[in-house]
Design a protein that fits this description.
By secondary structure, the chain is an alpha/beta fold. The protein is built from 13 helices and 16 strands. The chain is elongated and about 75 Å long.
Length: 381
């Protein structure tokens, strides 16, 4: 370890930042560097090296399309970040880093030698692509370069001095990649964005989703994905996740936070981003849509408290939803040992036909995002 790396790590350990790292393929030398400098326990929350395909799939909770890709690095970073938030009870700033790499080995590789690095923090998501010219560097030299790039990415993300300058081997090139899920267009003007980098569609180019599952996805967990699948099987149509930038009883999401949440979903499931914080607004955007909701959400839909304690306001909004030919599909939930279904909802009679039940044998909701953030019963971080 050279003096510049040592000096930066010493400053990092003296700072308030906490880090969780997930590395596959290369970059593990950075762990040795972090641990060599006294004070590493103040910085490093956890380091994971899911090296084999089986280990990586277990870490991610699914089989990635490619072990070495930006999407895999992003998902690794998201997993590391969510796990770190679960483990750390204080308010220290946290970063989760994912590195997905392939470097020189004892046989010639067909593809490029490269590394994808992604960092998730409370400020958003940052990505880098490191590429080598094959044949110029040994495996050890490429490993050194990946580890330096990982450390540089940390330096570039946090407010710690002195900053670490990037020093890579011959022919190596590190490129910063901008992330844009189109969220800024929702903030600026568009009613919604269908988050698809290849084919972005917004409120000026209408889409017609048949079913939507709205959520905060903080974090995305198995309850969301299982409910999506169950609703899809029951309705025999595609169900799309929806993330609203606005919320009735919480502050609006920042672009950075929205990008973090979308990143958990993008490439795995379809998702729309909107500004619609109530279901009557969603119904105006997507007439004829089925809204897939859990029992807790269904309770709020028919509770005047969420309409400024005004029953007439509630009736008016439900009427708007009905006039838009929208309806609700309700997932059952166990609460205090009792199974609660759509039959337990006190729905005004004029809206009875808008509330349907998702069969309990297909899905029942036993855990929420809030519970997942405070316990470890569900490991799909």
């Amino acid at each position: 370890m050279d003096s510049k790396v040592h000096k930066f790590i010493d400053s990092l350990h003296a700072s308030e930042y906490r880090c969780a790292l997930a590395l596959t393929g290369a970059g593990s030398r950075v762990l040795s560097w972090l641990l060599e400098v006294p004070g590493s326990s103040r910085t490093l929350i956890e380091a994971t090296v899911p090296y084999s395909k089986e280990s990586l799939s277990d870490f991610l909770g699914e089989h990635p399309d490619a072990s070495v890709s930006m999407k895999t690095a992003q998902y690794m970073a998201q997993k590391a970040f969510c796990k770190a938030k679960f483990l750390v009870s204080d308010q220290a700033p946290i970063i989760g880093l994912g590195c997905s790499a392939t470097i020189a080995t004892d046989r010639e590789k067909k593809g490029a030698h490269r590394a994808y690095i992604s960092i998730v923090s409370n400020k958003g998501l940052k990505n880098w692509n490191l590429e080598f010219k094959k044949g110029l560097l040994s495996r050890s030299q490429e490993e050194e370069s990946v580890s330096r790039a990982v450390l540089y990415a940390i330096s570039d993300t946090i407010n710690v001095q002195p900053k670490l300058n990037i020093e890579l081997g011959e022919g190596a090139k590190l490129e910063y990649l901008e992330l844009d899920y189109g969220v800024s267009r929702v903030v600026d003007r568009a009613d919604y964005i269908h988050v698809d980098v290849e084919n972005p569609i917004d409120g000026e180019n209408k889409i017609d989703p048949k079913a939507i599952l709205s959520g905060s996805f903080d974090p995305l967990h198995s309850g969301h994905t299982s409910l999506l699948k169950a609703a899809k099987d029951f309705l025999k149509t595609e169900v799309i996740f929806e993330l609203s930038m606005a919320n009735v009883d919480k502050p609006d999401l920042s672009i950075e936070e929205a990008n973090i949440r979308i990143n958990q979903i993008f490439g795995r499931f379809p998702i729309i981003t909107t500004r619609a914080d109530t279901f009557n607004k969603k119904a105006k955007l997507f007439p004829g849509c089925v809204f897939v909701v859990g029992f807790d959400t269904a309770l709020r839909i028919i509770d005047p408290k969420y309409y400024e304690h005004n029953v007439d306001n509630m009736i008016n909004q439900l009427t708007e939803i009905k006039e838009s030919k929208c309806s609700f599909l309700i997932a059952a939930r166990y609460i205090d040992g009792s199974l609660l279904t759509v039959k337990d909802l006190k729905v005004p009679k004029m809206f009875d036909d808008m509330f349907d039940e998702l069969p309990v044998e297909l899905f029942r909701e036993d855990i929420s995002s809030t519970e997942i953030r405070v316990n470890s019963l569900d490991k799909e971080y």
